[in-house]
Amino acid sequence: MRWNLSIGVAECTTWGIEHVYVVPGNAGTAALYKASNRADTASDDYPGLVVLAKNLQIGLVVVGPDRAVVDGIEGYFRQSGIPCFAPTKEAAELEGSKSFAKDFMRRHNIPTARYENFNDLEAAKRHVLQIGYRVVIKASGLAAGKGVILPSSTYEAVKALEDILVNRVFGAAGSSVVVEECLEGQEISIHTLSDGTHTWSFPPGQDHKRVHDGDRGLNTGGMGVYTPTPFVTPPMMQDIETLILEPTFEGLRLEGRTFVGCLFSGVMLTSSGPKVLEYNTRFGDPETQSMIPLLDETTGLAEVFLACTQGKLDQVSIKTVPAFACNVVVAARGYPQSYSSGETIEIGKSDTDFIIFHAGTRIVDGKVTTAGGRVLAVAAVRDTLQDAVHAAYEGINSVKFHGMHYRKDIARRYVSPLRYRRSCAKPVATYSLLLSPRALPDHPSPP
Fold first, then answer.
1. By C-alpha distance, which of 407, 357, 403 is closest to 211?
2. Which of these, 123, 140, 349, 390, could form a disulfide with 99 (CB 3.0-4.6 Å)?
């Protein structure tokens, strides 16, 4: 988003952007056109950020981190009269508490997996031992995308409960847990913009959560994504709109939690239709890096965000290009557990057209160095998914730092000489997954 907003300054001054300030920023944002990093105010000092915004005469605040959104940073800026693209603290509870989110889905008849919430270890263990289906154990609070455990046995499920509720491996996020049915199917990410009344969804993407190839290893915040998903047809998107998105936004309105911002719905396409896995109340990472590059050059992201804060999303034009994007994350050695930092990053020249998005990077003594688990991501946009995947990996070949790690199979299940006329490994019985890119859904501007 910071990249797109900054590009807007250079290419379309009619959007009214004079400068982009990033808190705290990284080595990538430091190099953007008419953009500046501001690390003098802590990103969790919300009153201080309001003062900074006033001093800089900021006309729009866009919030990225989940913790800030869930803490209710939007309210600080709203009370000061500064437009802020983020939901209220009340609406953000959909992400801040998985227990709340599951109960919300139950109240509003939104399809999801069978579940129970627990804060008592013995009660949770009894439940796991009594039910006759495979489960997923989730820490209810924010855990940086790592609070989900998929046990392969009852023993592992009980151990996961002990680790979360007693050993507090996820800290305060594990004060309660959700024990839910493990769904089978294809997982997709749906990002929907909302101004409280009108909505517009980006093309669906598919993230790769596990750290190693073949979906092995620990869960991460995401190791790579491609957009759009070739197997999601227009009828499937309509089902998601009718069964999930509409009742979600309506339910929020009915509960006095009107949603303004970006709602990220994790959806599993099962043999009995789409079901919600979880909600995030902000843009996803790495999904955003494959969605934003698909916006048509006439679409001003800052204009769209500002329209959302004004209840005018229906008055702006949002267009996407008929192409595919692939985004591959490059992580530090050890991620998602303890990881090294301070490694010098070298980025060489390449004849391939791609975009490098910085994440955990900083500048030390004039050199770009690693400063996080997920260090950067390489994205590419092409007419076909196969070409987008190839270009993204070509871009990674230009990146070098000690201990770098990345998955080598992003989107590979759909990349073949048949150009994606291929059914998925886990077929969704109620849908046909055999289609060409021409059958992908069109994404018009909001009505």
1. 407
2. 140
